Amino acid sequence: MLSLTSHRLSPLASPSPPPAQNKFRDAEAAARRAVESLRLAVGPNDASTATALYNLAGLSKRLSDVRGAEAAYGEALRIFTLALGEGAGETADTLYQVSRGAGGGVQWRRGRGSGVGEGV
After folding, report:
1. Domain boundaries in the chain?
2. Which in 3, 29, 43, 69 has the greatest CB count within 10 A?
3. Each residue of 84-99: pLDDT tens digit?
4. CA distances, 117 to each of 32, 66, 83, 109, 114 (Å)
């Protein structure tokens, strides 16, 4: 015979993020610092800044920060297009990531005034 009982979790039983998740959060913070440093060192429209944004987007996506990933990928795409052109491999790869979306059903938009890439 199976009996059902209700269980109460004590405050000590609340789950903490797994160690790997904490490492991704630390990496995301470092990536944000790298983006800001590159914006100051080489400029906001340099391909190196776009690469740092691309890396930040991947970490944000891994941490389920859909808005953050969308903004970072969008800004990276804008910069790669400006700095390297539409035919560059970096531009194409970033466009591919944008087209895949950051998390299930996200609608990605490209172009001026779309909100993509703003606020990173």
Report:
1. 30-100
2. 69
3. 999 999 999 999 999 9
4. 14, 13, 15, 10, 9
Backbone angles phi, psi at 113, to 5 degrees: 80, 5
| Cα distance between residue 74 and residue 54, in whole Å | 9
pLDDT higher than threshold 80 for residue 118: no
| Cβ atoms of residues 97 and 72 within 8 Å | no
Provide the CB-side half-sphere exposure for 115 (13 A, CA): 7
Asked whether the predicted pLDDT for residue 104 surpasses 70, the reply is no
> DSSP H helical segments within 1-120, as ranges?
19-41, 47-62, 66-84, 89-100
pTM attached to this predicted model: 0.71
Under the banding of pLDDT at 50, 70 and 90, the label for residue 15 is: low
